[in-house]
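Key idea: predict the complex, not the pieces.
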Amino acid sequence: DAGVTQSPTHLIKTRGQQVTLRCSPKSGHDTVSWYQQALGQGPQFIFQYYEEEERQRGNFPDRFSGHQFPNYSSELNVNALLLGDSALYLCASSKVWGLNEQYFGPGTRLTVT
Amino acid sequence: QKEVEQDPGPLSVPEGAIVSLNCTYSNSAFQYFMWYRQYSRKGPELLMYTYSSGNKEDGRFTAQVDKSSKYISLFIRDSQPSDSATYLCAMSARGGADGLTFGKGTHLIIQP
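Result:
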């Protein structure tokens, strides 16, 4: 049973550019949440998608946007990249009736130069 | 004051010792409490999940929640070098529908 997968593993971008990160949830899961983890910090909640809609959002600006597809996979888009966006971006999947049991992927490490 | 406080460590103990990891929180709305383990450059792995106050045991791991003190703990018995990792506590008020709020994580080192 494949767990949560994310791509790419690593990414280097320049300030002002845009980036798209991808996530495939664990089999049987229908909800995807995205988190940002800066070095030495715990993950911070960005937003959550269910039924192809953003259901909840953390304290992140509109530069962060997302999408969920009919097969439950998801994308995170970040526009106008800032140096401070450098972090590990984690995708977590769960069942909508078991949102406390979120299973994380390995993450995408984004470096903004 | 951050919503969830967790001592970043590092915490270094000899193999076989009982390890105690703790978090305090300020938001009394939190009702769901989780512990995750994160190895270097990997995603967090769910270890334990508890609801409200009380204890929960799973193998060598025991999670405790004291809502009156806003204090949660994770105990690891018979610690092994493979337990060396960063341990993150996480909490939610609405069963995860509001996202999880994490502590900074405690870096644990088990010395062989």
